[in-house]
Amino acid sequence: MRVSDARYGRDIRRYELAWKLVRFDARTRTIKRWTGLSGYRIRTFYRAYAAGEPAVSGSPLRGVAPTQVQFFWKSAQLKCEAAVLAGFLRTFHALPASSGEVDPDSLPSIPRGERLCRAYEEFQSLVPDTEITIEYAMLLLAELVRGVQMELGRCSTCQVLILVDRLAIAATQCAYCAHEARAGLPYPVTLVAAQPTLNPEEEPEDPTPGKQGRLF
Ligand SMILES: [Zn+2]
Fold first, then answer.
1. Residue 164: strand, helix, or coil
2. What is the pLDDT of residues 99-141, one digit of tens each?
3. How much distance in Å is there from the Cα of 161 to the middle of ligand 1?
4. 72 CA distance to ligand 1 middle (Å)
5. Least CB-packed of 8, 44, 70, 93 within 10 Å?
């Protein structure tokens, strides 16, 4: 459903963002922060538009949004997914170009919220079963801007984009290279980006197994 009722006038973008966040199961408090809508208006909006939508849960989530950065270090899978999401956040300019000069608390806004949702939609289309919710995406964005516990970097072995734990002393490697290093096995990484551009008609139908490409 697309919100298009003229009664919302100039607030239409605000409500469209709220609608996207509702569909992503964001908490009321989170929607308030990013859209500037009051709790009353969000609840009214929710009752008017979300009720009966199969893709939306029966009521908005309550409580506090996640704040634990350790979530992203729980598994190699999550580390990889978070790096992919961070790449989309950067590509869609949800992540400010000069993070050091931005106050993380000033991030929520309508334009940035729209860019964040666009990045998250792309990410979710690539990783539909991810554990990273839209609120974890917001946490990732804020922590990357803060730059205290994590930052974006490159794998020291294969150069793919990775999320670097700034408090860890381990080598900055992607999950694949770290796994191979621990196992003591050679890993013939081939960067797709470093290869000459192929004519689409020449693209092999069955890519060689074991090659790691990169998105960003
Ligand atoms: Zn690597």
1. strand
2. 667 888 899 999 999 999 999 999 999 999 999 999 999 999 9
3. 9
4. 17
5. 70
